[in-house]
Amino acid sequence: MTSTIYEPERSKWAAERLGYLSTQIAGATCAAKLWERLLPLDRQRLGGDLKAARERWPSNVALWIELRGVNPYRAVLDVAKKIDCLTQEDYESLLVEIGESVDVDEAIRMAVAGGGLVVVERPRAAYWKGEEVEVDFAKYGEPWAFLWELARHGKAGQPVDRDTFNGSAGTVAKLKHRLTKMPEFPVDLNDSIEVVGRGTQQLQLPREQIRVFELKGLEALGEWFP
Q: Which of 24, 53, 107, 153 could link 101 by a cystine bridge, Cβ 3.0 to 4.6 Å?
């Protein structure tokens, strides 16, 4: 199930730069450089072998999308920056052009405006299709915990199960029921949560349409990526 995502109009400079970078970061040499700069855990997630990873995800953009759950434009910028093909200044400027930002408040605003599901750890808030989900998540801790984990796992392309919540076989179904039966919870977002196995459910949204902003330390928020 998908939702309509707004894409901002880009300047001629941004369109040309994105096209150039897409070509510049392609190929085996850039793939090897990117692989060297990945964390060991990230390489493990991709199978632990560059040749096998290249066979499964032929482009560096596709590989990055698999790791981080971002859209292709963000993947181009992230890969280019990772392998030193893009300055920090241009990276930040191009992020704005694709509807994102390194400034967290602006990034949240843009994410909400872009549609999809956005969850913010503090103060607890969730947004769906550009509108705030009017559930008092400060009051209802268990529904929030379920939505939070559902979003994080969905961003990583994974389901939630009993182990996610240290519960029993029926824990996931019970938590989902408590959240989705709230009158303020969007019906179409509920429809995006599907059973994928016994005691296992997953948010069926494209990963790039799920944005998670978590605490990075005591006070500062930052966007979370798998």
A: 107
